[in-house]
Amino acid sequence: MKTMKNEKTETKNGVVPKLRFPEFRRCGEWDSDILGNKNVSHFVKDRVGLNELTLETYVSTENLLSDYSGVAISSKLPPSGSFTQYKNGDILVSNIRPYLKKIWQADRDGAASNDVIVIRSGKEVRSKFLRGLIQNDAFIDYVMKGAKGVKMPRGDISSMADYPVAFPSFEEQSRIADCLSSLDALIAAHSQKLDGLKSYKKGLMQQLFPAKGEKVPKLRFPEFRGSGEWEEKKLGEVAEINPGKHRVDESTKLSFVPMSAVSEDGQLVVSDIRKYSEVLKGYTYFCDNDVIVAKITPCYENGKSALAKNLKNGLAAGSTEFHVIRSNSKLLPSFLITLVNTDSVRILGKNSMAGTGGQQRVPSTFFELLTVFVPTLAEQQRIASFLSSIDNLITAQSQKIESLKTHKKGLMQQLFPAMGKANA
Q1: CB-based burial, 333-363: b 16+ in 10 Å, e otherwise
Q2: For the whole model, what pTM was predicted?
Q3: Which residues 6+ apart lie within 8 Å of 189 measured at CB?
Q4: How far apart (Å, rounded) are the C-alpha atoms in residues 34 and 226?
């Protein structure tokens, strides 16, 4: 890739990017227009019937992935209706909750649900460059400003059509698209490595914990082979479930933990510090080394759980949608968090959910009566330390991906002109 330098144009209000490839520095201003102009793109309205659908080519808001991450194979097809036809190279935009950034450039022909907008490039814009214009945070911000609804906001299609865009020659469009595609390929490669690490950990956990009907795991560290069976217990016998509030001075500062502070890879990110008097009522309280587990679907199903560490004054107040599990002297906290995240426990927890509609919850009695198998403290520590080392690799890989995404976002801000603003 050739070196790029900041572009300094002689015009005060010309539409040019801040960053330009060397061979295009003197090529003048970009053309400007709106997204809905047929020379730029058009919103596809062609329809197909149910008989045209397949699981591999049907796209809905459910199988479009967030954060521009692509599309998954659909798990089911709708029972009836007509659908928007899309072609290879079209841009598919989920029009429900646009902030989720569910935007994908099709690599096949197929059909989309009515909540997915299909946009096809016009004669003056290459499809790969159009992807850069739409799969862009500036476009998302614009759509959200015109979105309608609160809980399930939807983008306004007529407003989308008026989105201001700028584009250069075909040659420069291709150069920019190729640059961004190379970054996407790098991000995809690192994402595959991350998925591989997660699959590796999942497979190990299935071996390191006893299978159903067994009291010893299939895989055991050498120093513990022949050490006998793990001890069968109810979790309520080796841990306290939802121990309750803590009596401290009301001026005591403590960490505040909303559900959003727990990532799906088990990281607890706490930055909000409040006084105990400010959160005295209506919250769940927990301490350092407590395990918190989301009780409400879909947070539980998505793995929202964490081992509390480094809390302000060792204490936190959090969402009432957390269960708090505090281990006793026979159970290490680092082993407990791993135990509650095994596939077998997560499936049992999901099956125990009670409630109606979207408000189903895992009851506290599920954890109290849950049958668990517990090895010696030494073996617990060995298992927890080993899995923690893999978690560190997963965290490092996740951070690398986020850094690449941040780099791409910054690069796009430089490669595409800020419409409506003077370029200095």
Answers
A1: bbbbbbbbbbeebbeebeebbeeeeeebbbe
A2: 0.83
A3: none
A4: 72
Which tens digits make up the pLDDT trace of 293-326? Answer: 999 888 888 888 999 998 999 999 888 899 999 9
pLDDT of residue 13: 45
Is the Cβ–Cβ distance between 423 and 20 less than 8 Å? no
Using the structure block, give the residue that is written with the tokens 């400003």.
145
- Phi and psi at 117, nearest 5°, equal -90, 135
Domain covering 231-374 in this structure, CATH number: 3.90.220.20
Write the CB contacts of 326 (distance below 8 Å, at least 6 apart in sequence): 239, 240, 243, 286, 287, 289, 290, 291
Longest dimension (CA), the chain: 80
Strand pairing class (19-20; 5-6): antiparallel
CATH of domain 16-23+170-227+376-424: 1.10.287.1120
Contact 379, 221 (CB under 8 A): yes
241 three-state secondary structure: strand
Which structure tokens are listed for 227? 């050490």
pLDDT interval class at 281 (50, 70, 90): confident
Domains 16-23+170-227+376-424 and 231-374 share a fold: no
In degrees, rounded to 5, the angle at the alpha carbon of residue 305 between the alpha carbons of residues 303 and 306 is: 140
Hey, what are 318's tokens?
Answer: 């959090």
Coil, helix or strand at residue 343: helix
CATH topology for 36-162 is Adenine-n6-DNA-methyltransferase TaqI; Chain A, domain 2 (3.90.220)
Task: Please count the CA atoms within 13 angstroms of the CA of 49 that sit on its side-chain side.
Answer: 1
Q: Kindly tell me the burial class for residue 60, based on how many C-beta atoms sit within 10 Å of its own C-beta (0-12, 13-18, 19 or more).
A: buried
Domain residue limits, the chain: 16-23+170-227+376-424, 36-162, 231-374
Rounded Cα distance between 152 and 263, Å, is: 22
Cα 165–chain centre separation: 28
Q: Is the omega angle on the peptide bond into residue 79 within 30 degrees of 0, that is, cis?
A: no
Is residue 213 a contact partner of residue 351, using CB atoms and an 8 Å limit?
no
Distance between CA atoms of residues 287 and 65, nearest Å: 35
- Average pLDDT over every residue of 3-20: 58
For 337, residues 6+ apart whose C-beta sits below 8 A from its C-beta are 266, 291, 305, 306, 307
Q: What is the mean pLDDT of the chain?
A: 90
